[in-house]
Amino acid sequence: MIVWLNGTHGVGKTTTSVLLQRLLPKSRVLDAEKVGETLMDITPGLPEMNNFQHWPPWRPLVVETARHVLDYTGGTLVMPMTVLVEPYWREISRGLAQHDIPVRHFVLHADTETLRRRIADDMVTGPASPFRLRHLEPYAEAARTWLHDEAEVVDTTHLTPAQAAQRIADAVMDGTSTAVSDAPHRGVG
Predict the structure, then answer these.
(1) pLDDT tens, position by position, 143-157
(2) What DSSP line would sit under 147-187, residue for residue?
(3) Most exposed: 43, 75, 130, 174, by fewest CB within 10 Å?
C-alpha cells in the first residue's frame, strides 16, 4: 500500500511523513522528489522546465520506483509529494492501480495565513521561501477544483505534525475512508 501525503510546499508533508512512518508497521518513506532530483542531475540537462514534474519521464519513474520498492520490501510506502496538476495525479494513480497497488491519498491542508507563517518561520529552507510562496495560489486552485475531492483532507491549521500523523495512521489502520478533517471539502481557508 501507498500512503500519499499531498498538499502545498511548507504544509509539513516531510515532517509528518517521518512521524507517520514510525506509526505504521512495516512502512518506509519514499520521497518522489528524489526521482526528480535524479532527472535534474542528467547531463547535459533535460529541456528547461520550472518543475521536474513537467518532464514526462518523472511520473512513470515514480510509479516504477514505488512498485519495485514494494515488490522488494512489502509493507507500506509513505510518499510525501506535492502534486497539484490533475493529469499528473491521474497518470500516477492510474499507473499504481495497473500494478494493483492501493493508494490512500491524504492532503495536508492549512489556511493561507497559517501557511504563510509556517513558511516564514521555517529555518531549514530559509525564511519566506519564494519557491514555497509561489505555490500557495496553485495549491488553492487545485484544492478548489479537484484535489480536495480526490483525497482525504487533514486540516493541519491547528495540529502539530505528530497529531496529523496520528490521525492519518488511525485512518489507515482502521481502514476508514472518510475525511479526517473538519475542513471544508472544497476550497481553502
Answers:
(1) 999 999 999 999 999
(2) IHHHSEEEE-TT--HHHHHHHHHHHHHHT--S----S-SSS
(3) 43
